[in-house]
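Hello,

Our lab assistant flagged a job as stuck in the queue for most of the afternoon. It eventually completed. Since we weren't sure the result was trustworthy after the delay, we are filing this so someone can double-check. Below is the sequence as submitted and the structure that was eventually returned. Let us know if re-running is recommended.
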Amino acid sequence: MRHKKTDFVPFSADAQRSIANLEAAYEQLVDIERELDALPTSMFWQTKNGKDYLAVKKSSSDSGTTQGPRSPETERQFAAYSAERARLQARRASLNALVQDRVKLCRALRLPQLAEQQGRLLRELDLHGLLGYDVLVVGTNAFAAYEMVCGARFPVGNEATEDFDLAWCRGTRVSLAAIAPPAPQQAASGRVSLMSVLKRIDSTYAINRRKPYQAVNDAGYEVELLAAPSTHPMPNGEAFEPMATLGEQEWLLRGTPVRCVVTTNKPGTCPLYVPDPRWMAVHKLWLSLKPERNPAKKGKDARQGNVLLDATRYFLRDSYPLDLEFVLGLPPELRDLFTAWAEQSGFDPTNPSA
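-- returned structure --
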């Protein structure tokens, strides 16, 4: 289906400012959260045999490690920890209030949002340095990001979903690890696994034995990890075992990903890191024709692919051009799909600004 530019609802100037302000507040908040997370869970005095000893718990499950008997040195250590924790907690409270104020503005402007269940997962992935470094968000949840980067609400595409799809990107050119320093948490304490992040949210998450690329909690919520053949094998310590035969996942590792911040329905906020919209669009069109694809999903795939190509054409002409260079970089099976869309839409990639 061809969508005219008038089918999209552009965000107002107020909405654009609110989005920028929300992103700035969120980034400050997550920096503080990372600093707090890097601190010991607690530091306290223990009395043993009539003497006080300074004890430190690195995590909530840690039984505590003694740092030494009470002395000027351990008292300074305890005072420094207490002051830093109090400072960070006060800063976090202030930023939380700022974020909530900006979330209210974005919600009043009816900007795209995700369910809080997805939002919490994304915040934890970001906090622990997996989002953008190890994984991309794919599937329907990515469409909130595409609406944000286009600055317009789509007529179709951002439909409710009851699961969460991630694609592995570590070791590829779209991973932030290729262009930025290691994520703070992973640089400080080594790589954090995807399953460990899920269990921080809900301890009932476990790998589905019939589908080892999927984790499910007791409420039946599913998180799936997809991976291109070139990204195999997974790092040691990863419980997920994504299929190694999904060659189409390679396409989502091309181009320039999108990062943005959106609101959630609690209300709250969360980040998104999603594939290049052009490659996601043609990938969706290809999925709509894949013989093994669930027939119930094919119609949505086609709608999402078409609307995302149309949106890219209208709103992302400079940053994500649908020009001849892009077309010639497509594999034949995707080039044919793009050509069919272009003919139906009256679009000429040799003159994309027409």
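-- support follow-up --
The delay was a queue issue, not a problem with the job. The result is valid. The chain has ten helices and 13 strands. The first strand starts at residue 9 and ends at 10.
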